[in-house]
Amino acid sequence: MLGFEQITKPMSLRDGLAHALRTARRAKGVSQEALDTVSSRTYVSALERGLKNPTIEKLDEIASAIDMHPLALLTFAYVRSGKHASVSTLLKEIEEQVQLLIENEESLSSPKATPSLKK
């Protein structure tokens, strides 16, 4: 259900990501110890308590280990933070922004668009 954001108290992004990691891991029935191929139990525990922030690579590894896309975890964290009204509006905004990036990717990487680094 996409309405969870209306019945929960907003939290910081760090706490939202911590909550997302813990919720996803438990929902998938994965113990912290079972993630030992990607991270120590101590590190996972610190992430889930909001004491540490993972790198994008570490988030991807942990998400893969619990069979969850890292963007699902981040989306949950952003909605829980109160920065977006709902999952559907956030995903629509993301889709539009990614499309803009795709459309402008080539024009920005052409030699004409790259400023000269002459001294």
TrEMBL record:
SMART domains: HTH_XRE. PROSITE patterns: HTH_CROC1. It comes from the Bacteria. Pfam families: HTH_3. SUPFAM superfamilies: lambda repressor-like DNA-binding domains. Residues 21-74 form the HTH cro/C1-type domain. Gene3D superfamilies: lambda repressor-like DNA-binding domains (1.10.260.40). This is Helix-turn-helix transcriptional regulator. It comes from Chromobacterium phragmitis.
